[in-house]
Specification:
It comes from Saccharicrinis carchari. Keywords: Signal. This is DUF5723 domain-containing protein. Residues 1-22 form the signal peptide. Strand 17 and strand 18 (376-390) form a beta hairpin. The protein is mainly β. It has a single domain, classed as Porin, CATH 2.40.160.10. The two termini are 31 Å apart. The chain is globular. The longest helix is centred in the first third of the chain and has 13 residues, at 2-14. The chain has helices at 2-14, 17-21, 101-104, 110-116, and strands spanning 31-47, 65-82, 87-100, 125-130, 134-149, 152-159, 191-201, 204-212, 218-228, 231-240, 244-255, 258-269, 279-289, 294-304, 331-342, 345-354, 361-373, 376-390, 397-412.
Length: 413
């Protein structure tokens, strides 16, 4: 009880950065602290598995659906310390209080474990208070130092290394996988890594990166960037999780007024280098703005899957364990449109199609965002999934529909 109270007070203190910054005095001139607070209400409706008994406590006889309601409070705290003109230190916390059925229905403890145990070598995350229907989690997802001198930039620690070119499907992004549907995690996960970049020209560079995960598996690669014929190109090669050869290629540019980008990647196990156990993924997409109000976008991913790979609809809100898990099917297609109704309001609609016969899946996601003030915004999301995928309670593959609605209020400081 005392431990929970202590961390609860710490959570409230972290929500008021001015109180923290005031303790530093003159040092505050070298410190920048910002962040935000988010309150989100959510409801999810899914079909009830036939074999699920009424005795679980949250179902009554005759119920054909499972209703899942939750409230979450999230505090983001970003600290940037500029030691001098070459050295800086960054620490960022993501603190969450989740209350509702999502926790209450976590019979196996998988949700609780996922908050506290990540795939990183260093894991500064703590479930400081856990109950039947709530979890309070404090976590550092960025802790790194960066040194810059001339054309050289070096960073070490928990950071995000973004090597992707496309919008949704990123086969080149071998260091940081993320859950596309988890819109509430804007910053995306970090990884324990070393990164060095040297700028060889105004639009060219060489980058080296390496990380280690919780299983002490190492990923390391070198990437060359250049601008040729008004296109940005990248070529990369290295090792993925101590097991696979990794080769990749990416580009971005314009075809007339339409933006065109893409990524190609090949991951081949070292142990079976001559067989067909490798994975090839290609993603490409375009976006076009018709005016200051309308933007449309399309993107697809093709994958040559290794023999024997299981085709399943993935866990939508959990990041893939590896970049190789992005390929849930040999083909998937995304299309989206955004309408800027006014400087304060916007609407968007996204759809993804998974035509493989083992999935036959579709995702539809409309959203609306409105700026209430300079630092206050409200947004509404709806996510519809339909296809063959593991049931949220029994984990058995079945054809089902899941509807989820989210009302989100965000205050930035």
């Amino acid at each position: 009880m005392v431990r929970s109270l202590f961390f609860g007070l710490l959570f409230l203190l972290l929500c008021t950065p001015s109180a923290v910054l005031g303790q530093y005095g003159d040092m505050g001139k070298k410190l920048v602290i910002d962040g935000y607070l988010v309150n989100m209400q959510s409801v999810s409706i899914s079909e009830r598995p036939i074999e699920l008994p009424d005795s679980l406590g949250f179902l009554t006889k005759g119920d054909k659906h499972i209703y899942n309601t939750n409230i979450s409070f999230q505090n983001r705290l970003n600290l940037f310390w500029y030691v001098n003109d070459k050295l800086s230190v960054t620490a960022q916390m993501r603190n969450r209080l989740i209350v509702g059925d999502q926790v209450r229905m976590d019979f196996t403890g998988q949700l609780e474990d996922s908050y506290e145990n990540t795939d990183n070598f260093f894991n500064p995350a703590w479930n400081v208070a856990v109950g039947n229907s709530y979890i309070l989690n404090l976590a550092f997802d960025r802790i790194y130092a960066e040194y810059t001198s001339g054309n050289l930039a070096i960073s070490l620690g928990k950071q995000r290394i973004n090597w992707g070119k496309t919008f949704a499907f990123n086969p080149n992004d071998m260091f940081n996988t993320y859950a596309y549907f988890d819109f509430d995690y804007e910053e995306k996960p970090g990884t324990d890594a070393f990164r060095a970049m040297y700028y060889t020209g105004a639009a060219s560079s060489v980058e080296v990166a390496a990380n280690i995960d919780s299983a002490r598996q190492v990923s390391a690669a070198i990437k060359w960037n250049a601008n040729l014929m008004n296109y940005d190109f990248q070529v990369l090669g290295g090792m993925l999780k101590s097991k696979d050869l990794a080769l990749g290629f990416g580009w971005s540019g314009y075809i007339k007024d339409a933006s065109w980008r893409g990524e190609l990647a090949w991951y081949q196990p070292f142990e079976n280098f001559r067989d067909t156990s490798g994975l090839v993924m290609l993603s490409t997409g375009m976006d076009y703005s018709f005016s200051s109000k309308w933007t449309v976008q399309t993107e697809m991913m093709l994958a040559k899957l290794p023999k024997g790979k299981e085709i399943v609809f993935f866990d939508a809100y959990a990041p893939p364990q590896s970049v190789k898990d992005l390929a849930t099917s040999p083909f998937q297609l995304l299309a989206s449109a955004m309408f800027q109704a006014s400087p304060l309001s916007s609407f968007s609609l996204t759809g993804i199609w998974y035509p493989h016969p083992d999935i036959k899946g579709v995702f539809i996601g409309p959203s609306w965002a409105y700026s209430l003030a300079d630092n206050l915004s409200a947004s509404l999301y709806w996510q519809f999934f339909h296809g063959n995928f593991p049931d949220i309670l029994t984990n058995k593959i079945s054809r089902q529909s899941i509807n989820s609605g989210f009302l989100r209020l965000k205050y930035s400081f």
